[in-house]
Design a protein that fits this description.
- The complex is a heterodimer of chains A (386) and B (312).
- Chain A is an alpha/beta fold and 386 residues long.
- Helix content of chain A is 64%, strand content 8%.
- Chain A has a 5-stranded mixed beta sheet, with helices on both faces.
- In chain A, α3 links the parallel β1 and β2.
- The radius of gyration of chain A is 29 Å and the shape is elongated.
- Chain B is α/β, with parallel strands linked by helices.
- Chain B folds into 2 domains: 215 residues, P-loop containing nucleotide triphosphate hydrolases (Rossmann fold), CATH 3.40.50.300; 67 residues, Lrp/AsnC effector binding domain/regulation of amino acid metabolism (RAM) domain (Alpha-Beta Plaits).
- In chain B, 36% of the residues lie in helices and 28% in strands.
- Chain B is built from 11 helices and 14 strands.
- In chain B, α6 links the parallel β7 and β8.
- Chain B is globular.
- The two termini of chain B are 45 Å apart.
- Classes of the chains: A alpha/beta (386), B alpha/beta (312).
- The interface between A and B is large, with 37 and 51 residues.
Chain lengths: 386, 312
Amino acid sequence: MTHLLPTQTARRLPGNGFWRKTWAVLVKEFIQLKRDRVSLAMIAMMPLVQLMLFGYAINTTPRNLPTAVLLQEHNDLTRSILAALENTKYFRITHLPTTEAEVDQLLASGSVLFAIEIPANFERAVRRGDKPAMLVMADATDPVAAGTALSALGQVLQTALSHDRAIPDSMSLPFEIRTHARYNPAAVTQLNIVPGLVGTILTMTMLIFTALSVTREIERGTMENLLSMPITPVEIMLGKIIPYVMVGFVQASMIIAIGVFLFGVPIVGSLLMLALLSTLFITTNLSIGYTFSTVAQNQLQAMQMTLMFFLPNILLSGFMFPFAGMPNWAQWVGEALPLTHYLRIVRSIMLKGSSVADLHYDTAALFVLMLIAMTIAVTRFRRTLD
Amino acid sequence: MNGSDIAIDVHGLTKKFDGRAVVRNLSMQVKRGSIYGFLGPNGSGKTTTIRMLCGLLTPDEGTGTCLGYDILTETDKIKTQVGYMTQRFSLYEDLSVRENLEFIGRIYGIAQPVAAARAAIERLGLTGRENQIAGELSGGWKQRLALGACTLPSPQLLLLDEPTAGVDPKARREFWNEIHALAANGLTVLVSTHYMDEAERCHEIAYIAYGELLVHGTVDQVIASSHLTTYIVSGGQDGNLNALSEQLTGMPGIDMVAPFGTSLHVSGRDAAKLDAAIAPYRKRKGLDWQRSEPSLEDVFIDLMRRSQDNFP
């Protein structure tokens, strides 16, 4: 017969063992994560796939944008301009309207993203050196696409027309390109997007990791065992959050490295500060996810809460729309979201080279949000099965 | 440590869920070093009572101590000295045997959790399976692991909630031998079960139904206190006993008729009425009527019926 009880009474360590118990949960969580292939794949694939999808979809030089050209005169010059436009590959001339009303309708319906109008007597004015205006109307609802194409326009036309002997040789373009961005005059620059994606991707993955951690224990029935043991809510919380801080750090490093090497985003400021504040942001999101987990009744509810929280983070943080352009109430909501503060931090450090002094407000805000979440989580944590 | 020889001492425990009392005014005392059997039908409040004892549920009414600690205010201290084996396997199914035991060792602050886990694996006979994922173990091995896990920190009190449900007879026998060995070492064991043979291996038993503790004491005391008179009827041709059973059921003075293999147990609470009721049948040919002690099962089924009458 075997004996169940240890031959000698197991010796217990003195003290309440806060870190020891936290460590026990941490080790357990790491092992469980290691066995959970879906989560492991998510850690690696989510930043990669999202960054590739968003990064390339948003940043890739736009091609074949449908364009309408309204020609008030037909001659060699206008033909050269059309050929040059087509050669850039940015524009694809799909419509040749004859009236301005037609142009407006094409733009409004979204049939074309650009409309170019060459006025009457254009060639004569060019040859005289009068610098006439060529009007370019852009649908700027997709500001990135519009901006890239427009910025290329002048350069391309100058190169193309320099071969035309009939035009006076000069360093500048013999006519003026007057652009008119319609629908969304505030354009977001490309460099803003990759740093923004760092924050967005981290928000999503971090929330999901911890949002399920407590509800999963309840649904699997392991919570009953855990609660019958001498462990406190704070120890459980830290033991469940800390492993994912490390996971989040690896993810953030991956995303930033891709941003730098693949998308050429600079890191003007201090890399150490970026790492420290990113860790703070990761911990804040993990705490919020964990709070959802203690409030939700089951895993489905926890997922729903996560999505409900994720959406305003995307819309009101300044990721999608310029923060300053939002109405006051939306800005107030935005201030309560960690992504808002992290976007300022990450953009400032990566693009502007800001120092800690510039960022103390946003750093403090992240810290406060983290403490609020942790306090709610610890007080909401049900220590009994009542 | 508390010097008293009472491990569990609770009075008037009541627990309500959504206004419905699941446990009503329950009082019990369990001596240190004894095996206390907790019996009762499904949903009678056994699990709820056990959970109140180890601090997993807060009683709505009542007071008491567990290992000398107050069950309302000192649950943290109780938890360090109690091993609780849940009805459902509640260790981590995605952790290996060794990892589960090491986790528990660390939580309880055992000096060398890795060595303690290794020793426990040897003791439990799990050598060779230490790296197997707990979720892939068979029922018997899971039960063994769960018992090993709750004894690992050397607790003073074991609370076992239907530990042998779904375990084969040989493993059950071994399990009970071990429980007795543990109690011999001074460990107090409170165990809930459905099996009558297990109840008979306890030092003391309590029967709980519809949230009320109806009877408690040693097996003999419980049987004596039932005041049941039982006759065992045997013999007769095929179908004879069946027909007799149908005729006797529901007659005044006869409270219970239950077939046991080739014999029939006929019981009544009032011996005189019972004798009167069966008198006409006693002379039937081929039937052998023998007055006997009721079995524990007769007693419990009678108790269950009576409590049902009280709580429709």
